[in-house]
Amino acid sequence: MKVAAAKVAQFISSPPEEVRAILLYGPDSGLVRERAEGLTKLIIEDPKDPFRIAEFSASELRDDPAKLSDEASAIAFTGGRRVVRIRDTTDSFAKSIISFCKEPFGDALVIIEAGTLTPRSKLRAAFEGSKQAAAIPCYADEGKSLRDIVLETLGQSQISISPDAMSYLLENLGSDRMVSRSEVEKLRLYMGEETEVTFADAIACVGDSSSMALDDIAFSAASGKIDRLAHFLDRGRREGAAAISILRGVARHFERLHLVSGAIDAGNSAETAMKLLRPPVFFKQVETFRNQLRLWPTGRLSQAINSLSEAEVLCKTTGMPADTICDQTLLRLGATSLALIKRRG
Q1: Of 28, 146, 152, 233, whose Cβ has the fewest other Cβ atoms within 10 Å?
Q2: Percent share of the chain, pLDDT over 70
């Protein structure tokens, strides 16, 4: 079944008894983990109980396709229902998961954690079409949900926040739920005995230099500017950006392009479609963003998003240097941009 965004919180707090497997997917890996941990705690008081939880990477299913069914049907030595969590899942490792989704074994709750999955994803389609499974998207916090996180965290110390400080946080947080919580918690501790967060406090505690570096990398890759891409990759690493953070930053940019491109395909003007984006495109980057929309067809954007998701999995599972995987993936995207430019003439 497909869980509507408005019903996700209710579903997570009390999943229907008939649901045996839940797919958590999307670009916000922190929200994926947070929801997976919340679902686990509904079943198991101690999430570290080795007898009642099994956790492994989806890549293990390639060598042992029966591992999921075996773990899901296993009986806990100490009694009670078990939880099976599978990390880093993509369509490449989906065959045995889809089979399980059609005919669940045992009574364990199976939680599948994945990155971005397009509407064409076989894994996503299997969960959305099953009565015993559910698919829940995990997109970057924005608007009300991010505002609630800020107010909830600061409220623990009875700290208020000025409107301009809140606007700044909403613009510079939200790409990862756990990172957002960590940043706001850091701000709460930073305030000490002060009772209101000002704009200056927000800037001092929650900087955006790494975010700007990731934007530069993403825009360079999508525009086919290879020299600038190499320069900004080097700068990003000097500022401490990890390969996976870079891949996710670029993926977010291509997801934003994909959202707008899809709206244009549905008959909206580029101007109207771009108004869907939150936060909006920085005014100095609007024209470049429009040029990229004209350059990249929607199908190509889907392929780019998939390649970035696959690259993240490779970084986590192959043992190859993550920086090398990241660089090769982004250079391929840059080369694709150049090919699209040449095709346009």
Answers
A1: 152
A2: 96
Helices (H), the chain: 8-13, 29-43, 60-63, 67-73, 95-102, 122-128, 143-155, 163-172, 177-191, 199-205, 209-223, 226-238, 243-265, 270-274, 286-295, 298-317, 322-344
- Please report the domains of the chain, with CATH numbers, ordered by start residue: 5-137 (3.40.50.300), 143-205 (1.10.8.60), 209-344 (1.20.272.10)
> What average pLDDT does the segment 249-267 reach?
93
How far apart CA 148 and CA 164 sit, in angstroms, is 16
Residue 56, SS3? Answer: strand
pLDDT tens digits along 37-62: 999 999 998 888 888 999 999 989 98
Residue 193 Cα to chain centre, angstroms? 35
pLDDT for 38: 93
CA distance 104 to 98: 10
Taking the C-alpha atoms of residue 151 and residue 240, their distance in angstroms, rounded to an integer, is 29
CB 189 within 8 A of CB 182: no
Strand partners, 196: 160
Provide φ and ψ at 49, rounded to 5°: -65, 110
Whole-angstrom distance, CA of residue 112 vs CA of residue 233: 32
pLDDT in tens, 306-326: 999 999 999 988 888 999 999
CB 316 within 8 A of CB 325: no
Q: Which residues contact 154 (CB under 8 A, 6 or more apart)?
A: 160, 161, 184, 187, 188, 191, 197
Whether the model pTM is above 0.85: no
The answer, yes or no, to whether residue 208 has pLDDT greater than 70, is no
